Amino acid sequence: MHEIAIITSFLTTHDQETSLRFLLHERVLAYAAMKLWHRYHSQLGASSPTENDLTEGKREYDEIISVRGKEMKIIMDGQRKHSKKFAGTFRPRKRNGPGQM
Q1: What is the pLDDT of residues 69-91, one digit of tens each?
Q2: Please, are residues 28 and 48 in contact by the beta-carbon 8 Å criterion?
Q3: Residue 33 domain-assigned?
Q4: How far is CA 27 from the centre of its chain?
Q5: Based on the structure, what is the number of domains in the chain?
Q6: What is the domain range of residue 70?
Q7: Which alpha helices (DSSP H) does 14-98 contain, by range?
Q8: Would you give the distance in Å from CA 34 to the centre of its chain?
Q9: At 99, which helix (H) or strand (E)?
């Protein structure tokens, strides 16, 4: 709740352009997260995003990049560098039975 209050306060004290950039930034990050989820879903023991979700995410990302260009692409490039840095370091935790630590 606190984070939502801070973001709301920040966006209400700035112009509409700032709000738009914030929303677009969130969509770019969501697509980056979906790609990571797709890449590591088997290690996470989770289902993969659907092909439709991936296609729609890519379409939305491409549209944002075509309008906003470099400023939003840098965000995605930063996500790629981050994911390469930690690639292969994820190991699922062993689940202990009840009462075990």
Answers
A1: 777 776 666 555 555 555 555 45
A2: no
A3: yes
A4: 7
A5: 1
A6: 17-86
A7: 16-44, 51-68, 70-86
A8: 6
A9: none
Asked whether the beta carbons of 76 and 61 are under 8 A apart, the reply is yes
* Cα–Cα distance measured from residue 82 to residue 25, given in angstroms and rounded to the nearest whole number: 17
Entry field: residues in the chain:
101
Q: Which amino acid is residue 60, in one-letter code? A: E
pLDDT over threshold 90, residue 51: yes
Summarize pLDDT for 6-20 with one digit per residue, the tens: 988 988 888 898 888
Crossing angle for the helix pair 51-68 and 16-44, to the nearest 10 degrees? 150
- 72 in any annotated domain: yes
* Separation of alpha carbons 81 and 99, rounded Å: 39
Where do we find the tokens 């677009």? 24
Residue with tokens 């790629």: 80
Q: Is residue 91 part of a domain?
A: no
In a domain, 1, yes or no: no
Give CA–CA dist 62/93, Å, rounded.
35
CA distance 22 to 18: 6
